[in-house]
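Entry 14. Two folds queued back to back today. First construct below, sequence then structure tokens.
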Amino acid sequence: MEFNTQLNVSELNTYSVVAEPTVGWSSEPTFAAVKDDAVPLTTVYNAVLNKKNVRVLIDNGSSFNIVSESFVRKNEWQTNAAAAVNVTLADGRRHSGDRVLRNSKLKLGCVNDTLNLRVYPVQNYDVILGVPWLIKMKANIDFSSGDLVVLKNGRVKKIKSATTVAKESNAGRRPDWLLSKKSFKKLLKRTDELERHNTHSVCYMIEGEHIEGLLLAEKDLGFSMQTPNRPAGVAVTADNYATATTADNDVSKKIERLLSDYADLFPTSSPGLPPERGIVHEIKLKQGTAPVHRTPYRMSVAQEDELRKRLKELLDLGLIRHSKSPWASPVLFVPKKDGSLRFCVDYRGLNKVTVRDEHSLPIVEDQIRRLTGAKVFSKVDCFNGFYQIAMAAADVEKTAFTTPYGLFEFLVMPFGLNNAPATFSRLMMNIFQDYINDFVLVYMDDILIFSKDEAEHETHLKLVLDRLREKGLVAKKSKCSFFKTDIDYLGFVVSADGVKMAADKVQAVLEWPTPSNASEVRGFLGLSGFYRNFIRNYAHIVAPLNELTKKNMVYIWTPLHAERFDELKRAVTTAPVLQVYDPTQQCVVCTDASNIAVGAVLMQAASDGSGAAPKPVAFFSRKLRGAELNYDARTKEFLAIKLTAHKWRHYLNNGETPIFFTDHESLQYLNTSTELSPKFMRWFSSITSWLGGPPTIRYKPGKLNVVADALSRRPDHSHCLYALSLVVPADELMQQIRDGLKVDELALAEAEKIANKIDSKYFWENELLYRFVNNRLQLYVPKVGNLRELIISEMHDLPIVGHQGWNRTLRRIIDQFGWPGISKDVQAYVEGCSQCGRSKPRSRFPAGLLQPLELPNEPWESVSMDFIVKLPKTKEGFDAVMVVVDRFSKYVEFIPTFTTATAEETAFLFFKEILCRYGCPASIVSDRDSKFISSFWQSLWSSVGTRLKMSTSYHPQTDGQTERVNRVLEEMLRSFCVLEPETWVNFLPQARFAYNTAVTNSTKMSPFEVVHGHSPRLPTSYVAGTSSAVPVSVERFRERHEQTISQVTKFLTIAQDKQTLYANKKRVDVSFDVGDEVLLNSRNLSLDGTNPPKLKPLFVGPFKILKKIGPVAYTLDMPSSFQGHTTFHVSVLKKAPNTDARFPLRAATSKPPPLYFQRGDAFYEVEKIISHRGKPPNRTLRVKWKGYSTPTWEPEANFLNNEFYIKYFAELTQRRGRR
């Protein structure tokens, strides 16, 4: 390949290099010289490691930081054992490294770092710093200078490469192998010296940016100097020095003469209004469109200054003018790469109402195939091409744009209009219509001229320039190139040898970071997909990456994705130079099909008649879709031929019958077979119509059906940057799966199927077993050891996946992995997760059927009690209401009291308002408030023979009746006291009367009538006789009362049965056995307070069941730190999951966290008061309770008049008196 860099030996400021053969690669030396957009030879830097000078290679393809094994031995450094990691070198050798050099001190320029280095047998370098170090130091490589750019203390620092340092310091410290420019010139004249050094070992290392004077071809060297990252180098030897210099001088003179003759076509500033050419830009609007007017965007001061300058330039050139248009589009600035601002008009509003021009742009692939046989190229770029087309007079007002300096409109075609590319393309087509495809290609404002030799090219170039002059078009000299042997065109580099990828695009792919979301994967595939024709089996490589971009797909980056990501990068860097399609040569197509994709390569013999082996023209691949995935092997292979024939029908239908090679032997008989399936008949007919005749299909065994690496790949050993190219390391999990597949029964059976060519839903790749399920690629996990449990735990237990339910966990797993019975395994694992059991609520109806209380037989036999607290304080000081409800009649009493009322005060209120009025109840239902569980309260009711019916621990539903009365009372008081809330106590009698005189649903009577035997006369009783309060005999009253009691009992029984039936519809009958372990709902437990309420576990435990109390209550074996009631309702319990025997990996980590309970709901007996703190009314006492070792601090108000309280302060007074 000829290289277009021009070298002037007389102006070189660098050194000649006597290159030495590189050990371990090839007997050929490695040469270094670069073209004008110079990329340094290597990214090698001088550094100090543990006080020893080292050569460091920065390799952004390495997954590790590495130190040379020989360098470690030389310095007798101690290394440590580490988990073995297999790596593959560029030459295909695999090494297993299990040593690491820990806590190494590295000084690289301004960077000081401590790092661990893996030990591998690396040659040529002491240390290799890979991606982990680059990420850690936030470093990058400036490939234009070779500098390492790092961010230190918020500032960008640059570290010069070893090559740059050597260049800058050569005057005083010149290595023996460097020759001065003068010495090199003398050396070229001394053949004896050249023979001693080996002619081909002499080359220039060029590091300047603008080098002129010399052209040299690769063929003169006898070997290729291409590298994965850079174009071919330029070497200067004695054999070709004189020839190259002469040829270069001839070309330079031609270019100088050309630029002089056509100087008017290359102005230094933008031209003014264009001449009349018959083509102007029109803006046709959709019917019924009104003018679009948008307000201007706000700008910074710097942007306004730039806008003022830009407006002045455009006005001076006559390209814009002031406007009075009803149209207006805003202006904005877009930063350029060099930091300057690009002037843009936001025409999106106008574009929405514009009728689209359907003039299509040329297809790039079709253009490039026209370059067959071309060896010399020039490129002309129009100067602000769009500004060289005038606007139609009627449409000038539509281009109006608004600015802080007024409204302006374009007289020429502005950038940003959606039909502007079509107009410009139409102009170019009209101008060069008779030249296009013969020696000119036009794409927008890029004009490519191509020819077979320099003499012909000079003629073609003059024809193009004459036509531009004739039509009044001008070009921008800085963007033009002339007489090039290879040239950038539309993202490709074209030359006589073929087509290859542009270096900047390749670099962009290489530098793409590991994607962190689907959008970044999509961007990477878009960039790399631009060159899919260069990449063999592209669809197969990217299939797993494509899965990540699907809608509603959970994004999880796996080792398989990382492997394909790196494989695609390697494919880009080693992509072949594609031969330009020659319509006179026969096409050879090699096709292949896998379980997930089809692929093909189109090849042709060299067009120069040299008889060389065919070279690749293009690659094609496509992922199998839908039903295609279920085709058998033969159908997939024929599908590959069909898809390839359709894709390349414009290539293959050239008069020469194409030859298709396939590795499925039976397909070669399709031409002569008389028994084809309907599908095969349709496909064969389509192929015949596309190609203009039946194809020739030949069999080639799979191991031979490959394109030789020499034809399709550049050698990996061509550059010292790839001395060690670490491929994806063998991930520990993947290696375990590989090892497991060797003994797994299903894997062995599938391997046997594939070996015997029996159709299988599985396929092997990279020693791993895969299958497609519902268009999803799954890796089979063998039933070996705890591999499957490990996969489930990774997808369920880690914080990043969030301990989700078994269904979501299963969906997450089957996106990547699969095995028979996976659903049952995942469900068993998740349902047995103790962490989920403690942290998640029940997902079904509450446990435990409703157990209604025993119905009383008469009024005031059983009452329920509760308190409404935190009411507005009245002038009497009341801020609470004690609510007492007769469970038989539903009669209520509302008694004002205080939130701070003691147990003694509460008992006195009950005695005065209830006991003295209605008698002593046989039982009381309470909510286990602290006032009801004090020893004083217990003693009081014991003295009058009452049995407290306390609700089961933490299950207040047994007191639901009083809760409902509380809500009714609160609603009444809100209605009565909306204006004066502090007067609520005045309305309690009215509220009580209103409630007691209302008929209840359960008794069908009012509570007043049930208790008193008659209904009261109400102020609203307007009809005589509506009250039942009329004189009756004693006997009659007794009979009526008994009748009322009987009726109420009947109605209460019916109501209770209905309530039970209704409630149990939304409950689950759950029972446990003694000895079972259960979890306890923590909602009403007082824990130690280390977790905020929102984040404390929903369940604690597990606890063993000691005793079953009735159908819905259980006594638990609670820890000693728990001091509450140990009997609990079944609704706050749930079975403790335990599948540790099935999943042994989890057994060691499934123990619950320790529990620390504060004092709960037990009844306590004071042993003594130890001390006190604070002053009244906030004084607290430190109380020692009987049966408990740990004292607690309690409010003083709970112990007033307590014998221990009186004794404590009496003794305290005596002690103080003695002092």
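Second construct, same run, same settings:
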Amino acid sequence: MSKSARSSKLAELRALRESGKKRLDTYEVHQEEDLYEEVDEDGYKKVIRERLNQDDFVIDDNGEGYADDGREDWDRRQGYDSESEEDARPKGKNGKASKRKREEDKTKRENMDKGINNYFTKGPVVAQPKAKPVQTQADNDFMGDLLAEVDTNVLPRASRHPPKQLTRRTRALSPAIQSAESLSAKRVKLGDANDAPPAYDDDDGNFIGGMDDDVPMSDPAPSSPVQKAVERKAQVAIKAEEEDDYDAMEVAQADGIAAASVNMSGSRPVLKLIKPDPYLTPASSSPTRPLPEEVDASAWNNVTSRLNVISSSPPTDTRTYGKMDYKDAIEADGSLNMFWTDYTEVHGSLCLFGKVKNKKTGEYVSCFLKVDNILRKVFFLPRDNMYKHGRETSEEVDMEDVYKEVDSIMTRMKVGMHKIKPCSRKYAFELEDVPKEGEYLKLLYPYNKPALPIDLTGDTFSHTFGTNTSIFEQFVLWKNVMGPCWLKIEDADFTFLNNASHCKLEVQVATPNLITPLTESDSMEPPPLTLMSLAMRTTLNAKDNKQEILAISARIYENISLSDTTPAEQIPSRTITIIRPVGSSFPLGFEDLIKKKSRGLVKLCRQEPEILSFFLAQLDRVDPDVIIGHQLEGVDYSILISRLQTRKTPGWSRIGRFRRSDWPGSMGKIGGNFFAERSLISGRLLCDLANDAGKSTMTKCQSWSLTEMCNLYLSSGNNVRRDVDNEVALKTWATTKDGLVDYIGHCEADTYFIAALALKVQMLPLTKVLTNLAGNSWARTLTGTRAERNEYILLHEFHRNKYIVPDKAPFKGRPKMEQQDQEEEGGDAKKKDKYKGGLVFEPEKGLYDKFVLVMDFNSLYPSIIQEYNICFTTVDRTTLSDDEDKVPEVPTDQDQGILPKLIATLVGRRRQVKSLMKDKSATSEQLATWDIKQLALKLTANSMYGCLGYTKSRFYARPLAVLTTYKGREILRSTKELAESKSLQVIYGDTDSVMINANVDNVADAFKVGHEFKRAVNDRYRLLEIDIDNVFRRILLQAKKKYAAINLLEVDGKFVEKMEVKGLDMKRREYCALSKEVSSKLLNEILSGDETEVVITRIHDYLREISGKMREDLIPMQKYTIYTKLGKNPKDYPNADTMPQVQVALRELARGKTVRKDDVIAYIVTGDGKSANEPAAKRSHTPADVMKADSGLKADA
């Protein structure tokens, strides 16, 4: 623009200002084509929605300080423009007229904002998000007083910057406080009222919140006019607007952003609060929502009210804050005793996490130990003759030739320091061209150097072993570390590390030679642990189709001894609950109510980032050793990690104990998330009740839901858990202040149930003892890796005996953790991986009303391995390469092999422990400890056979598995023949047991027959033993592995009858509870022993009664629920349309929920006369969907 044109425009503006007019008044609109698009109301709504779906103009603002309602804002000027231009203008005789004009302009703009043809409809309020404040005449008078005060205190005119030219349409920020017509039609009933209560922050004892830089503060600045508008909004009756009301949101002023300052000290009448009926906080964007449903929260409130909850953390004089002084932890000789619990591998060093005792306070605190200079051990097997250009020559190879070739390889790899020396080793595995014993060249070099290829060969050596051995495996084998134990650390460096972890003490040792494991004989008990049970509530972000965290509740148990048998409800605990509103605010009065009712710390947050930051701060403060949850692994924990990464939460590595600044590179990649997520929590053990380890301790369950676990294992009537539909709750009963308090109570109750279950089934003590027996990692045992436990116990045993062990097979992508043996799963197993298992006799079907004896071999396969000395080191497999199913010869005249010796040791130790349990003077803690130990020994001994036939095991040896099962079949046949030779009828046999019809009516005579047969069988073998397992009064034998019987159990010297069912529908999760109930009733009738005609009549009457109730819908809907386990991920099924469980799983995935392989899906097949022709898969729905009041669905009866 030229200088003259600019001067002309400025002169024009000056003239308009002096005349009191605006540029808009003289602006002439020139008609142009295609300047705008004409749309109807529906089209305008669509435009607004599209604008709202776009990313915010202000990036990463977290919704604090900027809001866009999607509507046009052509003629509205910003609030700061009005205050700087109009309010600072000198007032003359036209002051009142101009003021009136300004108010009329505001009214006109407000009417325009209402949209096309009153687009935003009015209606009675039912908890609508952030309704626009409606102002009364009192508000107008109050604002007038303020403006008058400003008018009478005019400041000198300051220099002003030229107004910025807007090159695009503007979108509204939080609306300024505006005048509105008084509500004359509906007068407000006046009553006493105070300002809206401030954000609640309870007295948290010694808890600390997140640091200021963790998350932008969302509390408004005190002088913000927006805050006052929010407060006034809560003090008047407001009208609701429906779903499409995209009015501008009122957003709290973000910390650090300057707010326009207004003097709010003017006088104003006190408004009286009219209580909404009811006043609900929004939980969804639905235009209409049902009134809150009644929910009986007494079940879980009664549970939490009985708990031993303490309101604050322990006294500060017994706690260690920040890093501790190493002088308070070392022994008199300068060494340090540390009980290690977990590990991680970092840049060629092994990092151990554990606990040390603070001798000053007496408490046990977390410790981080970095072990440097652990060396790889690689073994090279020399060739007999030299190879040149890929061909064998007649030149013999000596160790010097191998040394030179290996040294040249190390030089090319620029390894630097390495050691090479010859050694003797034995080999007993499946590579045919490796001698049973021979000379090897051993190479040692640091782990921070590259690994050699696993299939490396050379001109002078034919095989390489140990190239991919992990640093953890190398350490525990070298130092003979058998699971979690006390380590004595000498010459430790306490100053080398600085904030490398989140532990209280950090230690470094230059070499593993300075570490010595202490044995049980040193009488050092494991330290007490800090447990945190965790329950989360999430909500679906429909836009991103991702679950976001709504609430986190944690219950902390401190100083828990693994041998303590005290029930969870009696153990002192503390609770932390962090929650944010689903909509824009909490229900009115909720802050005060939760402050009165809560027994623990409840932190109210505005947004998800605040929840994450506060949770991490508390996690760092509490520093738990174990985090316990239900569906934690793969669901809740994965969501938590995902949200931390998405929100870029500062200090995210506090989820574990190793301090990190960068996320693992494999995060978010296919196959990489599992191990990456597990590595982040290193230092804290993750105990999940619903993973493989948890399921193995709760074998009574079928669905492994938390409610089912509580019903089966927390048998007390006071420990009843009620399922709650989270989505329904957030839309109905949890939208009131009382309902939201009950919602928090349900989450807090779950933290108790989770901890109580883990303590009840003694999951931590059992997994620790299993880890001590196997010598692997406690964290890995807690994932349920039975195959890995078998692997490590054999690794330790063969390493002690100087054997070269098989290398771990390399794999790509995410490994399948603890897969079941393919032969057991069937389906995808290749034929070559199958071999004959146990022998099953064809049953003599029918109903037997005479006593039947079940004779069972104790631990058949482990006993066979001992009886016939079956081992890698004893069985000759060199002649079996051409026929994989050929049974190898039983070894004779050989020393006891390593495998049978190991099993014999485990069996012998169990026998000793069981003898200790007979001590009547033993305490309950001692009995619990011994019981856990004998169970762990039994599980370990019985699982040793599994590694022989498990194709993915490092110790897979098909010939040994074939020989073991062959001898099992042979023994079972021999046992049947022996019974028949004594005129006893064998009516059924399966793998390790036979059923014998004793053909007597007296229990004493039945036991006499059993003992005589037991003696005859056991005399045939040296170690194999058969015993009476069950005595059946009556039995209905239907098919292989399917029968029902009345079992006699001895209780207090008397026999008690109990029904035992195997394989029938009432024992399978694929059948609903009603089916099982009917089956149980029928079996009770059949096995009652009454006259046949009487039994048939009762059965017919019962079936007529049940069918009538089904037709009249008198059967509770829950009894129609079917449970089916997914064999693969839902999207991987090729015939998903015909499978009900897959269809239900796919619908759950579409809702943003997590569904994975091995999950148990619950569903009900629905139907009526109209939909009967549709496939059952299409008519299957989750129980929650069917039982919704407005679903219109009912079971297909």
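Quick look at the second one. The first strand starts at residue 122 and ends at 123. The chain has a mean pLDDT of 80.
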